[in-house]
Design goal:
Length: 297
């Protein structure tokens, strides 16, 4: 177990940042002992936290799988040199924050005194008595530097893997990697994605992509006129059985209407609906819907 990483993992767990470790787990960037620390913490965590952690691991693994789901090909010439260069650049940025100390075995004693550790007491200071609190401040500075370096190392590890992924993906088209990471694209391109078109009162239509594997829907408006001044379109999710609708957001301009809306964790029996509301939206629908789309996964 790398003690620097292990200590950082313990700190993250103690401070409630377990979800930040999901990508490291997906990248296999922790060893068995470090993974055991994370698993032990998750066993006592809330169910929602465990599910969110598993989702983030799964999505990262799926993104990597989709990014590399391509025909086998010879790697580009010099690929490994490019990867090593990226890693070296990242490592140098971390090392730049480390204080370089003289080697006592090869440095004369008088030079060691002149190259004292930053923040330490000089001989004159020691003769006059240590300044109160100075040693504690030096210890705190060292602790902060150590913690920052550990975080930088962890960020460097993820960055190095990501850099390698981008280099490899670049051989087949970086746009494919970007699209694979886009949750909207994942719904639209899912093998089980189904499209339905629903007319919008007042003109235009709403196109809805539904994916049961993603448990998500993507809503795209087409040729729908912008709302009148002082009003806005508001998107709602009505639960199974017709309970209180949940607001999913506002579409107040032509620019808003041109952007796809992602609705996650949808269930069969729920309903997407759009109403016209006063500018700024409403806590609940106040007008008859101009678009209604039942969800069937």
């Amino acid at each position: 177990m790398n003690e620097n990483f292990a200590e950082e993992i313990r700190s993250d767990l103690a401070e409630g940042r377990v979800l930040e470790l999901a990508e490291l787990v997906a990248l296999n960037a922790v060893d068995d002992a470090e993974r055991a620390l994370i698993d032990d913490h998750l066993q006592s965590a809330d169910e929602a936290v465990r599910q969110d952690f598993a989702r983030r691991v799964r999505e990262t693994e799926e993104t990597l799988a989709e990014a590399y789901a391509t025909a086998e090909a010879e790697p580009p010439q010099g690929l490994w040199d490019q990867i090593q260069s990226k890693i070296a650049d990242q490592a140098n940025s971390v090392q730049a924050d480390t204080v370089q100390l003289p080697d006592p075995a090869t440095t004369p004693p008088e030079q060691l005194k002149s190259e004292a550790i930053p923040g330490s007491l000089s001989d004159a200071d020691a003769a006059q008595g240590a300044i109160p609190g100075r040693a504690a401040a030096t210890d705190e500075l060292a602790a902060r530097r150590s913690k920052r370096t550990a975080r930088s190392l962890r960020g460097w590890l993820i960055g190095a893997v990501a850099a390698a992924a981008v280099i490899v993906a670049g051989s087949f088209g970086v746009s494919s990697l970007i699209q694979a990471q886009d949750p909207i694209h994942q719904v639209i391109s899912a093998a089980d994605s189904r499209i339905s078109t629903v007319p919008v009162q007042g003109g235009g239509e709403a196109k809805i992509n539904l994916s049961s594997s993603r448990q998500a829907a993507v809503l795209q408006m087409s040729d729908v006129p912008a709302p009148q001044s002082g009003s806005t379109y508001q998107l709602w999710l009505i639960p199974v059985g017709g309970g209180k609708p949940s607001s999913l957001g506002l579409m107040s301009s032509a620019d808003d209407l041109g952007k796809p809306a992602l609705v996650q964790n949808v269930k069969t029996g729920e309903t997407l609906a759009i109403t016209v509301e006063p500018a700024g939206g409403s806590a609940e629908p106040t007008t008859k819907p101009v678009m209604v789309a039942p969800i069937s996964l």
